[in-house]
Every structure is written in C-alpha cells, then in structure tokens.
Amino acid sequence: GVGVPSPAVQFTLYKMGEAVLESCPYVKDIKITMPNIHNNPIDLSRFGCKNIHPHGEVFLPIDEPHGIISATLVRSASKL
C-alpha cells in the first residue's frame, strides 16, 4: 500500500476509523487507541549531510512528551 501523509495522530485515528465504517457495514462504532510518541528530526550537519525533506528524513524518538490518544467513531443513524 501507499502511505498517506498525516498532519497529526488524531487525523490518522479518524481516517482509520472512517475506513472501517465505510468498508464494514455491520460495525456500528469503533474505538482506536494509539500512542502519541514524538520523533524529532536529527541535525545531520555535523556529519556533513542534511535532511532534504522539510520535515526531516532521519528521526530520533524522544521520551517526553508522550501519551495515549483515542478516538471513537459512531456510524450515523440511517434515515430510513
């Protein structure tokens, strides 16, 4: 599959839940919980290199801040 850029973990959670509701008509709601772990781009200048992508290409996970983010999506009631 092809990845999709995500501006935030909340966006990813929503899109995942939305995909389940769209593809599984018998699912009435879904709760997804994900870790919120930050990864900072590494300054590669001391190695004579640089990250070409504006958001970085080489990252370092950090301990703080971190947390858990969850989302619950509920299927809309049918109008029939």
UniProtKB/TrEMBL annotation:
Biological or metabolic pathway of the protein: Purine metabolism; urate degradation; (S)-allantoin from urate: step 1/3
Keyword Oxidoreductase: yes
Keyword match Oxidoreductase: yes
EC number: 1.7.3.3
Enzyme class, first EC level, given as a word: oxidoreductase
Gene Ontology terms for molecular function: urate oxidase activity
Biological processes annotated in GO: purine nucleobase catabolic process; urate catabolic process
Full protein name: factor independent urate hydroxylase
Pfam families (UniProt xref): Uricase (PF01014)
Family: Belongs to the uricase family.
Gene3D superfamilies listed in its UniProt record: Urate Oxidase (3.10.270.10)
GO cellular component: peroxisome
Keywords: Oxidoreductase, Purine metabolism
